[in-house]
Amino acid sequence: MLRLEKCLSVANAPDRFQDLDDLKQLFKDVKDLDFDYMRRRLAALSLVIAIDTSDIPELDARFWKRAKVELPRAKQAISIRLDADVLAWFKAQGRGYQSIINSVLKSFVDTRKGKR
């Protein structure tokens, strides 16, 4: 939560954090951050901040009373044999490659269900 609050403070006042040292000072207690990446994202955020959100309603108590927590469906662990090049491609997509494989398979199954 602390990291989120700090990111929001940067997003809400990008002109205060133009210097990389300012960012480093703000996040001094957070390890493994790529400050050059943060600087690029900060520049992108400054464009987003200009968007008018006044027509978006606030989330009030009524919203949260009706809100439901939906947990993801449980996955079943299996062992599967894939061609080396196929697995390499999915792994090259980065973190979550197994979820991507699942999504591709699910999309295929959903398409086939519609054809029957």
Note the gap between the termini. Answer: 47 Å
What fraction of residues sit in β-strands? under 5%
Structural class: mainly alpha
Radius of gyration: 21 Å
Please state the overall shape, judged from the principal axes of the Cα atoms: extended
Query: What can be said about the biggest beta sheet?
Result: none
- Domain module tally: 2
Tell me roughly what share of residues is in helical segments: 55-70%
- Uncertain residue segments: none
Q: Count the strands?
A: 0
Number of helices: 6
Order of helices and strands: HHHHHH
What does the average pLDDT come to?
75
Summarize the structure in words:
Helix content is 57%, strand content 0%. The mean pLDDT is 75. The termini are far apart. The chain has 116 residues and is mostly helical. The protein has two domains: 2-48, no CATH class; 77-116, no CATH class.
What topology emerges from the helices and strands here?
Blueprint: H1 2-12, H2 20-26, H3 35-48, H4 61-66, H5 84-92, H6 97-115
